[in-house]
Amino acid sequence: MAGTQRVAVLGLGGMGEPMAVNILRAGLPTAVWNRRPERARRLGEQGARVADSPADAVDGADVVITMVTDADAVLSIADEQGMLAAVPDGAIWAQMSTIGVDGTERVARLVAERRPGVVLLDAPVAGSRGPAEQGKLLVLASGPPEVRERIAPVFDAVGQRTVWAGPVGAGSRLKLANNLLLAFLAEGIAEALALGRALGLDRATVIGALQGGPLVSPWAAEKLERIGRDDYSPQYPLNLALKDVDLALREVEADRFAVAASLAERWRRAVGQGLGGDDVTVVTRALDG
């Protein structure tokens, strides 16, 4: 029964917080922990149990979700802060942060060595804060097929669709491919608008022509609308988008993916200019500058 699943959500940033909200709305008993406790307290006002530590959060949990910045943060929570030692045997650890291939392998080794009775799922999500708030993320899951039914109420609460990609590690690989396409879409929007400006066109005219056209997805349409308002508040911050491109490039021969490598270097310069905390669409401003 969905109501019997006790969930712990560790990490309440731009994605983790709305995910936890939707898990609560689905009626699943939820414990939350965050490095900055004020975010956890907000969830406490909505019915979550606010934990003092990662180990406290997972006490009695059936499902544990980690949603933090990178592999080092995941491993710190799991090992140094005692989460993995405190997880009950038979519980599912759904590692949903984007940590790349090597990071996922490090997590899998830790579980195999320390807690083989814990079921690890590698399940990053596709989508930014808006879809997270709406419960419309795409879950890119991988791991043992026998736990799919058990985890379904949780994944259904945060996402509109779950794609099962194979054994642990396949989800993270699929996420890197997804985010590389997203990077090209963001850069393509920025360069199209910059080209229009260089050709003497008003930006609003270019945006109006692109919106509703056959090449513009709902994601791109929403980004164009926000660019038109000069709204670069972070949904998918540029520094995280760059991190994801770098994670992909670490796994392949750079010469084969020269366009992605060039994009990463240009984005690195934009981050160096202080734009890393803004939405990935801020590359439009960087090109205009």
UniProtKB/TrEMBL annotation:
Reply yes or no: does the keyword Oxidoreductase apply.
yes
Q: What's this protein's family per the entry?
A: Belongs to the HIBADH-related family.
Q: Could you state one GO biological process linked to this protein? A: organic acid catabolic process
Locate the active site. 175
Tell me the InterPro entries matching this sequence. Answer: 3-OH-isobutyrate_DH-rel_CS (IPR002204), 6-PGluconate_DH-like_C_sf (IPR008927), 6PGD_dom2 (IPR013328), 6PGDH_NADP-bd (IPR006115), HIBADH-like_NADP-bd (IPR029154), HIBADH-related (IPR015815), HIBADH-related_NP60_sf (IPR051265), NAD(P)-bd_dom_sf (IPR036291)
Which organism is the protein's source? Micromonospora krabiensis
Every 3-hydroxyisobutyrate dehydrogenase-like NAD-binding domain range: 169-286
Q: Where is the 6-phosphogluconate dehydrogenase NADP-binding domain?
A: 7-166
According to UniProt, the name of this protein is 3-hydroxyisobutyrate dehydrogenase
Molecular function terms, GO-annotated? NAD binding; NADP binding; oxidoreductase activity
State the UniProt keywords alphabetically: NAD, Oxidoreductase
Question: Short name of one Pfam family for this protein?
Answer: NAD_binding_11
Domain of life the protein comes from: Bacteria
Question: Taxonomic lineage per UniProt?
Answer: Bacteria, Bacillati, Actinomycetota, Actinomycetes, Micromonosporales
